[in-house]
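Bit of a strange request maybe. I'm writing a small parser for structure token strings and I need a real example to test against, not something I typed by hand. Could someone generate the tokens for this chain?
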Amino acid sequence: MMPTLQYSITMIKDEARHLVDVGSVERLQPIYSLCRYIPSREWESVELELERHGYLLRDRIIDLLGREDWRED
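Reply from user aminoacidic:
Good idea to test on real output. This should exercise your parser:
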């Protein structure tokens, strides 16, 4: 059995940012939507880390992203 990867809050935020940037998820979707992109055996680790930092699965992905800088086109 492969060891479970321990996700840090930074890793979770980076993954959320990447998924938003490539259009796989929307900013207003619940954080729970990320579970489709993280292996199920690792999801418990993600849930625990989110909880440790005060996030709920029903919170929006944009809550993880924090401040966003917009560039001029």
